[in-house]
Structure formats: C-alpha cells, structure tokens
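Bug #2210: token dump truncated for M1 family metallopeptidase?
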Amino acid sequence: MRNKSVFLLLLTFLFINTTFAQEEWGQKFEQLGQQLPTPNSYRTGSGAPGVNYWQQQADYKIDVAIDDKKQILTGSETIKYYNNSPDVLTYLWVQLDQNVRASGNLNSQTKTGEIKDSTATKSFQSQMASADYEGGYKIKAVKDEAGKPLTHIINRTMMRIDLPQPMKKGDTFTFSIDWSYNIYDRMTIDGRGGYEYFPADDNYAYTCAQWFPRMAVYDDYEGWQNKQFIGRGEFALVFGDYQVNITVPADHIVAATGELTNAKEVLTKTQYERLEQARKSYEAPVFIVTEEEAIANEKNKATKTKTWKFAAKNVRDFAFASSRKYIWDAQAVKLETNTPLAMSFYPKEGNPLWAESTKAVKNTLEVYSARTFDYPYPVAISVNAANQGMEYPMICFNFGRPRNGVISERLRDGMVSVIVHEVGHNYFPMIVNSDERQWTWMDEGLNTFLEKETKRERYPELDLEWGTPKGIVTYMKGDKSNIRPIMTNSEQVVQFGYNAYGKPSAALTVLRETVMGPELFDAAFKEYANRWKFKHPKPADFFRSMEDASAVDLDWFWKGWFYSVDHVDVGVEEVKWFRLRTESNDIENKGKKVKKGDLTAKGEDNKAMDFSNGPEEFSLVETDPRYYGEFMNKVDDKAIMQKFADKNLYQVKFANKGGLVTPLIVEFTFTDGSKSTERIPAEIWRMNEKEVTKVFVFEKEVASIKFDPNEETADTNPDDNSFPPRENASKFDKFKRKVN
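Reproduced locally. Full output below:
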C-alpha cells in the first residue's frame, strides 16, 4: 500500500511537471484552434465567404438641407431594408450617432479626468463637456410606407423599430424617418462632422458626417451589432444604394459621396466644361473653381438655395461637405479597369500646400489598387478641414494648412500622410467592410500599413518610420500594464494610436518583409481583399485567408503579435568558434599558442567576449557500424572530414527575453570586411521558446555577429544583439589590428 502511494505521488509529480513544461514551452506554437470561431457554411476554414454567406442591404433616399444662418441640419429619409438572412426579424436597429452629444450621453457620463494646476480653458471646457450646445437628434417622425407611425424605442445612440409584421428571408420593409439636429462647432466640440467658422470673412465650411439615422448591421456572426457609440469605436454599416438631395445656399460648392447627377443645373457653364475637361486630364489637375473665384465667392452671401443631387451605388455610408469658400480641382486617374476622378476641395487658407492634395489622392488610388483591387467608385475626394482626418465612401476630410505662410517638412508630411490614409480607407473599411465598432485594427492597422507602403513608393523623402518595426520599439518595451493586445475592443484600448494603427502596421511589415517575403505576402493580402470586398469580414477571416493563400502557418504570429503584449528582445548570449582537429591544424596552432578546450577570453560573467583566443578544436571519428543498422551502404567518412577540414563553425546561442518569438536575422561580418546574412524562420523556437543554439559554417573567419542589423523585428534592446558585445568592441578592434 505504501509503495503504491509513493508510486501515485511520483506519477502525479511527473504529470504536473510535464503539464507545466508543456504550458511553459509549447504554447506559442500551439494552433489558435478554439480561439477562432468554428468554420461553417457562412465563413469557411480557409477564410473565404462560404456557399451560404449572406448580408443585409439598405437603400436610402434622402432630402437634407442646411440652414447657414442657424447651423441646423434638417433631413427626411426613406429606407428600404432587405432581409437576406435565414432569420425571421421582428424589429430593426437604427444608429443615432449624433446622440453621442445629447444630454446625459454615455461618453460624458463615463469620462474620467482630474483637475490640474494649470489647464488651457479650451481643454478644460472639452473635459467638462461644458460647451453651450444642445446636441442629439430631434426625431420628428418614424413611419411605415403608408405613413403610419411605427413603434420605436430610443436607447442612447440606438433606436429599435418594431415591425408591424415579422420579416422572413427575402422580405423587404420600407419606412421613413424625419429628423433635425444642431450642427456643432468643431473648434469647441470634438467630433467627426460639424462646421468650421472663418471669422475673417464670416463664412462657414460644413463637413457632414454621421448626419442621418443609419441602419445597424445584422450578420451571421453576432446578430445585431448594436453596441452603443461612445465616441471612439467607429461604425458597422450596411451596403446599399443612395439617392441624396442636398439643399444649401446657392453660392455653396458641395462635395459628396457618389456622382453629381445634376451638374448642369448647379454648376455654371464654365465650371461644367472644366469638370468635363478634368475627366480627360491625366497629368495635372484642372481647376473647376479657382482660388480667385473662391475668394470672390466668399464675399457675398446668397439668399437663394440650390439642390445638389448625388447618386451612389453599393456604398456603406454617405458624407458631404459644403461651403462658399471652396477651391475645387480634379484629375483623372487611369487604372486597369476604371478611371475615377481624384478631386480636392479646400479654402484659400489651405494654399499653397493643398495644391498637392489631388496628387496624393491619385498616388493612393494607384498604389492601393495594385496591392488589392482597382478602385471601383467614380470619384475620390479630399476636403480640407482644420485638425481633422476622417474617412467616408469616396470622400474624406483632412487637415493641413500653412502656418504663418510657412510649410515645414513636418507639416507637408502630415498633410500627405493624412490624405493617403483617409483616401486609403476607401479600401478598408469602406469596401472591405469590417466592423469598426469591435475591431479598430482591421481597418486602421491594415490601412496604416498601406499608407506606409504608399509613402515608401511615392514619397521616400518623407518620414517613413510610423507603422514600421523601428517605429514601435518604444511602445513595445513600455509598461505592460499600460498596453493591451491588438485583439481588444476599441473602447477598451489603451494607447489607441499605437495599438490600433502603429503596432498592426508594424506587424504586417514584419510579416511581409521578414516572415513571408513580399511575393507570398502580397498575393495572400490581395486574396483576402478580393474575397471580402463589398462584404463583412471578421478577424478570423483575415487570419485564415493569409495562411490559406500562402501555405505559411502563422498561428504563432497572430498569437504573439495580436493576442499578447509580448515584445521582441533577442540576445546573442554566447558564441563559440570551432575548427575540425587535423594534423595540419596541430602544427599550425603550435605557433599561435591556442589554449585547447577554451574558446575565447572570458568575461566575469563567464560569457564569451570575443574571438581573440582562436577556435576550439573538435574531432570527427569514423562512424561506428552500429549507426548503420540494416543499411548495406555507408557514408564516406574521409570525404566528409575533408569537406569540413578548413571550415569555420560558429555555435551561437540566442535567448528570447521578450517573449515574442521571431525570425532570426543574423549578420556575420568577416575579417576581410565582407558580410553575409542568415535568415532563420521563427519556427526555430518551436521546441524551446526561451533559448536556441544554432551552428553556422563558413569558409572565412568571422569578426563579428549581429542580430537584426536593419531593425526589421522591432527588437527592443539592441545592446545585447551583437558579438563581440559593445563593451568589448574597442578591445577586439585592437586585437584585429594586431593579428592583421
């Protein structure tokens, strides 16, 4: 009985230790498995939409008007909603995003802060939400197609509309909403849409976003996406067709999502002719409204109105801008399957910097199209708006104005970067329509990566560090209590810019340049984009598509970069230099006084410090017959010995100190000054995630070794990347000079 108890105790001890070892050493290369949703007929294990994939549709007819004296927006919309799901719906959810600024909104109620000794008044007003502004929608009517009121409940930024009859698969339901709201001053109230006031000429520029009640998404993944809009997590939206009539003062110029369908009615004959000319201008923009004309236009205020009519097909949202101050230029962009118009709208305050805007739009369309799919829409518009960068289908609002007439390189870089970024959002998430409310990185991270790539190709003279491995080192080595995994909901993210923009972009850069290689990465990335254009992808669809289209197992990569807060910190811990022991070596080494069995001079910590003591010798002996087993043939021992007789073998130990497994990029510098770089896949860590040792063979003698020489991996501590260590470099230099 006692022996049995001891045996069970030992067995339990072994089990616990085996389990601990598995948890400690094997988790980083475990497959994601249960962490990803189970594939089904809607979303496949390959990452592609399944045979039964479906998505809803919502078509809009909207009439909207802006009161330029009172800054009030009034609208009426008719929505036709299509139930393409296999589910029966008894109610619909509509997003009321302007209610994020209504009294008692969730954002204000949950905002944290503290009183500082000295605070700018503007910042304090924003912190205390004390601006004299009555925000939120005034919903005037919600009616069915026959004009009968519909029962509805408003829960902060969401409105539930109860259906008179359940909607089955294939049914449609048409209803209307009438509303208005006070447009807010963006100078005092932070927001994506609003107005900017120009006191010098007493004019307004309106950038209207989240301006109409919009259908929430209903999908196979979670049903209704009706999470409250708190302010940061952006939008989950349904594709549809839009007809929008925008009534503004007669002297306003309007830019909007979609094609202008009544151009001859709202433009002068000269403006219309210039617009047509721009459709054939590929080399330079054509001015539809010049700066001189815009300056003249802003001096008088029209008392009449005009209605600009726009139509847009298969878009997930609609935005517009309106002002009498706008300069307007346009240029055609020749893509393989489409010729969209790149356009810019901006006040004189943006010049001369904004003369470069349309070129940036053009560059973005060309690079993004090459990396994903041809831009499918008829226009791509950049609108100048102070202190802003925000995207919508076919139109975006971007900052950038000279300061006291000066255009610094930093300002130019900022303007180009924001235009490329916001125009790029047409691809992610306007077309590859991810859920921004839940996963910010799926649009911001992917888009930051392509923004960086566009700048690298078209603007190499500008700052290219943001969104690269080098650009996130400071963040990655920071306090882990102040960092969240990329796979974190938008509203819970800490250090939002790094988490949702910089780190995902850097991760994709590592993936392209170091893990997969450009050819495989580009093909897989393009496959994902084309699979999910005009659809609703989730994170698993991206992860699976990238693996499916490349034959590269990337579960370790997603786990480390997206699900953890580990960082890359690899140290070159120890290097040993070996040569095969031969008779000639023995004779040669007698003059060098090589100390047998001792590799190099040692430091106090007993680590190899340099190569000054020469190589350690080892022997190859003839193969014992037992190693051959049943084989009748044998290897040529002498030939193998001869092959390695004059080779230099370097045994290098690497330590993973940061936790994030990474490919090893190792640069060897030889005594003759030449270099060689070895690229070792991250799978080298699969049997031991903390420490690995590898032997390298060279004809030449190595003078120094360096991990990550070009800062490709986001390694956070370059001080331990080299051998000889930095503190030994001067000592070793003296040794090399003496030997040579």
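Output looks complete on our side. The first strand starts at residue 57 and ends at 67. Marking as cannot-reproduce; reopen if the truncation happens again.
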